[in-house]
């Protein structure tokens, strides 16, 4: 079978070696940088139609091991898959129901993995979202502080205002907004692990009088016009296409007339929201973000507009997220032994592929990420935003 596979793949000229655990190997090109060590011989037949999810599943199931730098592994796997299968996108997916329990379970699966595990590769503030790089040489920690500032400046936060943070994570943005801009923050999350550490950091930094973090579903927010500003970072990917209108309607209801709403989230490349092709989207949906759905920018803007929010500014941070993910992946790769103390082998294999694969995908425009700023207009249709963006960059 190894000889047959060598005959099938030998013309691809990839820097890849395929070896059998029991002996025997062949190279697909000179100077291979990546080795696939086949532990299960039945996998050899599957390598003739190597979708990205098949390759990923084989790795996490220990049917194969990899040797080489993880970013090289991802690049070679993509080239192997594309050479044999082409580059057709997935069909438009079926939509999930996204009830409260389903969403809570999905959040717990991803975010309650281990605070110590996340701390190994995130920045000191544990900001688990796209950084903002003034230059590609900026450190991860610097880029994340710049991102928090960028959000706060876009929201034009002022001392004494009330800010709602939907999907507050470990509270990095809430603490920054309270400390640096003098606002009071009400943050909500569905992750018990995030909430515990977030509250500990609020207390440790003496911000308990300004920052309140709660375990709460966005659908359980009550009242009208309670907040001057609303921000949601890395949250609406979990909402689902079917719930987008309800989600933005709730954000609209929570902010006062004249107030601003910032939605920062990953968006699909295709207007119908279909997944990334050759199985990459299926792998993420199955092993990383259960029930996650990426709306296209057009769908997000349409939904916000239909709920009475006037979109006033849109910024793509796609290359910023590619750089952020490169940092995260490199940090994890440097800490694999310690990481194995916090998560099992299966989870660690998933996360190695996920971080490196997403860095590769964002760099190649497989998906995007947008900050969408909207205003809830006053009754007369006016708002009080500056006439230009100049104040953001002073």
Automatic annotation (TrEMBL):
Keywords: Lipid metabolism, Methyltransferase, S-adenosyl-L-methionine, Transferase. SUPFAM superfamilies: S-adenosyl-L-methionine-dependent methyltransferases (SSF53335). Residues 13-87 form the DUF7884 domain. It holds the Pfam family DUF7884. Belongs to the CFA/CMAS family. NCBIfam families: cyclopro_CfaB (NF040703). This is C17 cyclopropane fatty acid synthase CfaB.
């Amino acid at each position: 079978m190894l000889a047959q596979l060598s005959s099938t793949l030998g013309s691809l000229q990839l820097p890849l070696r395929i070896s059998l655990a029991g002996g025997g190997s062949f190279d697909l090109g000179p100077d291979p940088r990546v080795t696939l060590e086949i532990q299960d011989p039945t996998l050899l037949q599957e390598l003739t139609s190597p979708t990205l999810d098949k390759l990923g599943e084989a790795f996490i199931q220990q049917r194969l091991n990899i040797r080489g730098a993880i970013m090289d592994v991802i690049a070679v796997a993509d080239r192997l898959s594309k050479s044999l299968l082409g580059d057709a996108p997935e069909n438009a997916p079926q939509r999930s129901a996204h009830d409260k329990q389903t969403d809570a379970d999905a959040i717990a699966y991803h975010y309650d993995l281990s605070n110590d595990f996340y701390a190994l590769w995130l920045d000191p503030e544990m900001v688990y979202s796209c950084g903002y790089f003034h230059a590609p040489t900026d450190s991860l920690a610097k880029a994340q502080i710049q991102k928090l500032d960028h959000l706060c400046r876009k929201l034009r936060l002022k001392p004494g205002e009330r800010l709602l943070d939907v999907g507050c994570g470990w509270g990095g943005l809430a603490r920054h907004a309270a400390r640096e801009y003098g606002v009071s923050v009400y943050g909500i999350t569905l992750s018990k692990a995030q909430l515990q550490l977030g509250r500990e950091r609020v207390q440790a930094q003496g911000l308990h009088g300004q920052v309140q973090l709660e375990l709460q579903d966005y659908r359980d927010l009550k009242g009208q016009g309670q907040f001057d500003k609303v921000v949601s970072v890395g949250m609406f990917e979990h909402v689902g296409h079917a719930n987008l209108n309800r989600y933005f309607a709730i954000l609209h209801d929570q902010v006062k007339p004249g107030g601003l709403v910032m939605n920062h989230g990953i968006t699909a490349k295709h207007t119908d929201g279909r997944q990334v092709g050759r199985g990459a989207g299926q792998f993420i949906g199955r092993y990383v973000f259960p029930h996650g759905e990426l709306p296209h920018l057009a769908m997000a803007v349409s939904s916000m507009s239909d709920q009475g929010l006037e979109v006033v500014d849109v910024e793509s941070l796609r290359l910023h997220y590619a750089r952020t993910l490169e940092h995260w992946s490199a940090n994890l790769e440097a800490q694999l032994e310690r990481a194995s103390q916090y998560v099992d082998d299966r989870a660690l294999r998933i996360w190695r592929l996920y971080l490196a694969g997403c860095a590769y995908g964002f760099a190649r425009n497989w998906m995007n990420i947008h900050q969408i700023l909207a205003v809830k207009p006053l009754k007369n249709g006016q708002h009080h935003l500056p006439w230009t963006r100049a104040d953001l960059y002073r």
